[in-house]
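Contributing: when you submit paired examples, paste them exactly as shown. First protein:
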Amino acid sequence: MIKEVHLYKKCTMNRIELQNNIIRQVLTINDNQLLDYLNGILSKGANSTLYKLSDFEKTIVNESLSEYLSGKVISNEEVFSKNEKWLEE
């Protein structure tokens, strides 16, 4: 069913435009914690590889997707309501 999952939106900018856009945005950040987080991501990014799902993980994702597409879903409100009732027991 699922061959590949893309977590990022495709962009029409070329590499230089993307780099300049990122630089402009980073220069406006005043939050040291966010800057430290971004630095960690960028430091690891050069050496990291794309995570590959195992066969088991692909199976679980496919089962979940099938349930979702067939309407077998529960709203957050219903889940929280059931949890509240369970906790009160």
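Second protein:
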Amino acid sequence: MRFPPNHLTIKTVVALAASALLTGCGATAGNAPPTAAEGSRPTPGPTSSAAPTSDYEAPVVAGLIRTAGIKESSGLSASECQDVLWTHNDSGNDALIYALSTSGESLGTWRVEGAQNTDWESIATYRDPGGNCSLILGDIGDNDENRGEVEIYRVPEPVASTGTASADTEPRSTEPAQTMRFSYPDGSNNAETLLVHPWTGDIYVVTKKESGPAGVYRVAPAFGATVPVVGEHVADVSVPSQPEGLLTGGSISPDGRRVMLCDLQAGYELVLPDDVSDPDDIWLQVPSPVDLGDRKQGEGVSYARDGLSLFASSEKKNSPLYLITRRQSY
């Protein structure tokens, strides 16, 4: 990934008895929509006004990501079939995925057969109506915005456990990945956020913009198509941060009613109102800031399997894995 020019990272500090000082990221599952009733920070980077919201407790460190091969946890997604987190590195690395426990311990490494890592930036999980789980990998990074088309891979989710942890030094192989080529209707874009909606299986790619809002594109999951699938621009989204569209990760909650986006600094949650059932209406909601922890270079965020908490990761080796729990009253 690349940082935008001329933006300083600033952390909000509140003094108890003094004047204020300068103020300083796919998990999805389910089958059908519910009814309406139912470390130091890098510079340069964005300035964020994010602070803990009433919806979530303060972040706690669930563990450290010590897997030797994980240099930059560029994407993060919680499985919907097992208590496992999945992550990967970005450009310049092999086509490998890493399984972690919810405390950051290694559960093994897999090579994604039939895939290449040009610039993997995001991962999401999807559980189909038959209960089968798959991993969706977004090779969607394009810092120079010169890729006419990008790739999205889908692979059956491997079963991970403490018994597969030895695969760190000798990676296992996944089943062959299905590939979908994807292009934007308005030219090349850089993106680091890929989401899969649990109600429909549709894929959403959210762009990363150094100025202005990020674009949201819906992509039909036409894996194996012989021609590139053209995404549909369904919305623009701005978060309460500067830059407003420099988004680096995201996740959709298992019930499909919440979207968490993140930049390098913080998280921003959109919530679909109870009386609304169109999933695209969530992009009309106002994002609320959420503290995702003191991440050095935050790019990975995922709702937990139960949908009641969040996990957040950072690039850099031996980075902390944060757990952010939603308050029970919500």
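If you have annotations for the second protein, write them as plain sentences, like these:
Residues 3-24, 26-53 have pLDDT under 50 and may be disordered.
The chain has one domain: 47-325.
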